[in-house]
Amino acid sequence: KKRRLSRKESVPNISFENIGGQQRSKEELKEALDFLIHPKQIQNYGIRPIKGILLSGPPGTGKTLMAKAAAHYTDSVFVTTSGSEFVEMYVGVGAQRIRELFQEAREQAKRNQKNSAIVFIDEIDVIGGQREGSQHREYDQTLNQLLTEMDGITSDQEVQVLVIAATNRKDMLDSALLRPGRFDRHITVDLPDKKARMMILELHTENKPLASDVDLEKIADETFGFSGAQLESLTNEAAIYAMRDRSPEIGQKHLSQAIDKVMMGEKTDREATQ
Ligand code: ATP
To answer: What number is the average pLDDT over the span 251-260?
Structure first.
């Protein structure tokens, strides 16, 4: 059974302020989104609408958050899928699923009296990877359907649809996806620098009891190379350590322990997949 977002949830409740760092990516994204906010102007100037925005960058850097914030910012409904859902599907099923996704986006917007819908496709590389020979027939049909849906988007439709896709393998994408009128806006979402790590740590400890000895700056310093997702995980692990210690507050030592834990976790994950 398909899970439908409730009326209240149809526009995500995540705003750009809930995303730490990524200042440049946010600005670029907001700029690209202006056409959803001022559709009349775009039409008057005869500008063609942006149909696709590609977010690329390492895992866990907040691409999904950015897409949700884009929907929030433009008061659009949000429907989502991931390339991984299309793995090992029978020929034709993937294409059908894509058709339904766009249909659902338009219906949901109408149901909620919104003018626009954002279709988010995570891991686009799974369906939009370079085509090699004929062994990926089901992916081809899925990809073709996506291209057809995107080509069908015009600026005079009742519901303006925008597709946002995410990948951490931009180099792998089929050039058909990157042509003008498809995913022709590319926004890079990078690993956070120290200042951004600090902001992300602050965001994820806002509702946690931190001891007065906690120096988040130091934690930000020691987490070079961590993604936003790893920083979130670090704050959660630290809270678990504090609870195990029966300490009412999260101390600096719990955060330090959590750094090691997250680093170790990554290592074992990597070993497991080797
Ligand atoms: P993937 O490529 O693995 O799909 P992603 O880039 O889409 O990852 P998200 O799913 O957006 O990453 O992030 C995962 C989680 O990590 C978020 O729910 C959030 O808790 C945390 N996170 C990631 N980046 C940030 C950020 N910049 N600010 C705050 N939280 C972040």
So the answer is: 97
Backbone angles phi, psi at 208, to 5 degrees: -115, 145
CA distance 123 to 8: 27
Q: Is residue 60 within 6 Å of ligand 1 at its C-beta?
A: yes
pTM above 0.95, yes or no: no
Enter the ipTM: 0.95
Tokens 């599907």, residue? 89
Site of tokens 């793995």: 87
Is ligand 1 within 6 A of the CB of residue 19?
yes
| Cα angle value 51/147/31 (rounded, 5°) | 15
Q: Residue 238's pLDDT is what?
A: 97
Query: Which bin fits 5, alpha (ψ -120 to 50), beta or left (φ > 0)?
Result: beta
Distance CA 214, CA 202 (A): 11
